[in-house]
Specification:
Structural class: alpha+beta
Number of strands: 6
Strand content: 15-25%
Shape: elongated
Distance between the termini: 40 Å
Order of helices and strands: HHHEEHEEHHEE
Strand order of the largest sheet: 4-3-6-5
Oligomer: single chain
Number of helices: 6
């Protein structure tokens, strides 16, 4: 189990560095205490019984656009994190621009944009993440 906590800390530091955020304001000892105080053992035991990756314990940022910190993490399962990330991706507003970067409109999600123009939501998300990248004859950016 020690290796699981070490892996979590390593991932938190790696993600923070990749996003240009400060390193987490907690250490391995604090993280372990936090996890056990918030039901780690029960989640871990259930995962070991089920053997399903989605049942594995995981730490998630409460506000996905903010760095890992003592006040911005929660314990849940890998499945919960995966579902939350998927929902955030599909419900994030996206701006549509023409090829000269003139604003056209804002859609409530990449799915709504794809439906309106006959494109694919995945390609629109990919373009929006890059910021004004082109796909389906338009440029896209997250709001």
């Amino acid at each position: 189990m020690q290796k699981k906590f070490e892996s979590l800390m390593t991932n938190h530091r790696r993600i923070a560095a990749a996003k240009g955020w400060p390193a987490p304001d907690y250490n391995l000892t604090w993280l372990k205490g936090f996890c056990f105080a918030h039901g780690w053992q029960e989640i871990y035991d259930n995962w070991r019984i089920s053997g399903l990756k989605r049942d594995a314990p995981s730490i998630d940022r409460i506000k996905s656009d903010k760095p890992y910190s003592r006040t911005n993490i929660q314990l849940n399962t890998f499945g919960f994190n995966h579902d939350k990330a998927r929902k955030e991706m599909t419900t994030k507003p996206v701006d549509q621009f023409d090829t000269d970067c003139n604003y056209i409109t804002t859609f409530n999600s990449s799915e709504a944009a794809a439906q309106a123009i006959g494109g694919t939501a995945e390609r629109i998300r990919r373009a929006a993440r890059k910021g004004l990248a082109r796909t389906a004859g338009f440029r896209w950016s997250y709001v």
